[in-house]
What does this fold into?
Amino acid sequence: MIVKAQQVASTLKLIDPSVRAVLIFGRDDGLVREYAAKIGKQIVEDLSDPFNVARPTPEQLKATPSILLDEIAALSMMGGRRLVRLENAGNDCRDAVALALDSVMGDGLLVITAGDLTKTSALRKLVEGHKKALAITCYADEMRDVMGLIRQVLGDAGLTPTQDALSYLASNLGSDRAVSRGELEKLVLYMGTTAGQISLADAEACVGDTAALVLSTIAEATTGGNLKQLETVLERAFTAGESPVAILRIVSGRLMKMHLARGTMDYERISARQAVDKMRPPIFYKEKDAFTQQLERWPLGRITLALDIVADAEADCKTTGLPAEVIAARTCLRVARAAR
It folds into this structure.
């Protein structure tokens, strides 16, 4: 069964005991892992417990599809339900999952995580059409999701950002939930036990010299057509061990902001500056001029094409086996040349 967006929160809190499997998939790897952990902790408190948590691999299932059912049917040494985690699953796992779903043996819960499965994916179609399974799609965080995450993490620590600080954080956090949460937790640690308001200076001091800012600079150089700066920051990012997929996603996030602003600009027949001023949350004031200038040079159709190119590059990073750093760098340079 498909879990609709408005049902996700309740599902993460309580899984129906009749459910045998949950498939969590999508482009946002961080959110996929976060959801899988929350569901898993409904079954076992310690996700690293070797007695109550089994982790068969897709490679093992290819050789012996029945392993999945055996793990679900196994009795827990400590009592209660067992958790079975199948990570990086693909369509080649479909038959093993079907065998586990159609059996009545055991009461273990199977949590499957996967990348961006298409609607025609055999594994996705199986789970979405089975009454004893749930399918949850994890889309890359949109701006409102990032804002909600900022307020949640900082609010739990008794901290409230000023409007400038909130705008800065929203502009410098990417679309990957795990990366964004990590950056916010650094900020909480930086503030220490001081409860109260986070100023722009606090946000800049903690996030300004981090990988998040490097990625943001890559995105700005890409859409601005600044080839020299782009080559420099790409080299810096790869030397620091940044993920090529994270780089592509931050570029995609900037392009999506530009797509929204350009669509508003064309539909309402207003200037680029007026369209940028209408954006919520607002573009960080130090970046507004550069963003506006870039927006004037990018027609809507070209932004759409650039988004497709970046999305295809991410898929290539995950599926082709080619060097992901090369794919990401070439894609950024290709988009940057289009910007010129």
User: Anything to note?
Assistant: The longest helix spans residues 244-268. The beta strands are 21-26, 53-54, 83-86, 109-114, 133-138, 159-161, 196-198. The domain at 5-138 is CATH 3.40.50.300 (Rossmann fold).
